[in-house]
Amino acid sequence: MSRRWLSCPVCTMLGLAGLALLAWMLIGRGDAKADAVRQRTEADAAQVLGAAGFPWASLKIDNEVGRIVGDAPSPAQRAAAYAAASVTLLPMMGVPGVFARLEDGQSSPALTLPQVSAPAPAAAPVVAAASRPPVAASGPLTAADCQVAMAKVLEARQIRFKLASAELDPSSVPLLESLHQLSMRCPQARMRVDGHTDAQGDAAANLRLSQRRAQAVVDALVKRGVPTSRLQAQGFGEDRLLDQGTTPEAHERNRRIEFHLASKAP
Asked: N or C: which end of the chain has fewer CB within 10 A?
């Protein structure tokens, strides 16, 4: 087979069709040359695939099954070689004694996905060599110290309300007195009282309840002598849960009042 014949796709197809006809005639006569025809078909297919740009690919015929074999450089080139063989070797398919169907028997490197680097662990927060000194038991406090002192008081106890109500529970009176005394030691600080609920019930109703509860605390502090101008009530409902659980303990933790302090603007 000359290279001039290989360079012409139409000629290639005609040549293979002629080879198929010859195979049909030989197989039909039971001619012993059928094996030679299959070998010639394999040789010609290898030349056709090489000319098409797939020099590693060749055809192997076994029990009327034609397999494209060879070590493809990549999965993409393997697929391209098989697609080209399915077209260029089409005239041979269906001919008894040659091959009735075509299969892909090539090998190729495994398709590897790019390695994704694991995110670097977050740097540990830098801890100051000296911790903040304890809040003084008496005397004036800065807004920052007052915030720390109130947070510590609320860590041990929480302001409580009657069930589904903004009415303060009488058991919270001592706690309100402690918060009032601390607030009077930082008269330069403005205080925002935040109300939070758990996630049970209607979200809109929880938002309204949290606002009423925050306002109830503000009113209690004003009643004890804290100027109204220093106080603001803000309800957040169930938007800022501390615990996503559904246990009674989780609901209890989420129902809370928080204090946020800032120095007055000069």
From this structure: C
